[in-house]
Design brief:
Layout (H helix, E strand, L loop, with lengths): L2 H20 L5 H27 L3 H27 L11 H11 L5 H27 L3 H27 L4
Length: about 170
């Protein structure tokens, strides 16, 4: 084999190995779950902060404070599990769909703001609960799966709280 063929073979081997070396640890499903969970937590926090700045309802404001506390704690736990699994920290941000919902909420004032917030909370927590339950049942990383299982309990309680707030609310 001449030097030209040898260099070509080395270059092709390096090119073939490069994607494997650059690939992030963890399965794609785990990385996607971590990102979706982080976005969900961030969305909950941003919506709650919006409500705290604009709502006149004591019940809605108390619910929003609870969402901030719990979702900040869930975010921290998720980041720890991701780090323990060797994953990059999840990016701080929300999805485009969540951004649309947040924008719609931010454009309203009480009592419409409160009503919209509670509707968003029902939607967001139903969705988050489904995602968490699925990963807790079938996820391929034990640390992240345990975090999902723990989050399931908290998110289920949030969903119950949102349902109760909506039923009890004097908001039409």
């Amino acid at each position: 084999m001449n030097a030209h063929h040898l260099l070509a073979a080395v270059a092709m081997t390096a090119a073939a190995l490069a994607p494997a070396a650059a690939q992030e640890p963890g399965s794609r499903a785990t990385r996607e779950f971590v990102e979706a969970s982080a976005q969900s937590d961030q969305f909950e926090i941003l919506e709650a902060q919006t409500v705290l700045g604009q709502s006149t309802s004591g019940q809605v404001r108390a619910f929003a404070l609870q969402m901030i506390r719990d979702h900040e704690r869930l975010s921290a736990t998720l980041r720890e599990a991701a780090a323990h699994a060797g994953l990059k920290p999840p990016p701080m941000g929300i999805s485009s769909d969540q951004a649309l919902l947040l924008g719609a909420l931010q454009s309203q004032q009480s009592p419409d703001l409160d009503k919209t917030y509670l509707r968003h909370q029902l939607l967001a927590h139903r969705s988050a609960l489904t995602v968490q339950q699925a990963y807790a049942a079938t996820g391929d990383n034990a640390d992240v799966r345990q975090t999902a299982a723990e989050a399931t309990t908290i998110i289920a309680s949030h969903l119950e709280m949102a349902e109760r707030r909506q039923k009890e609310s004097t908001i039409p």
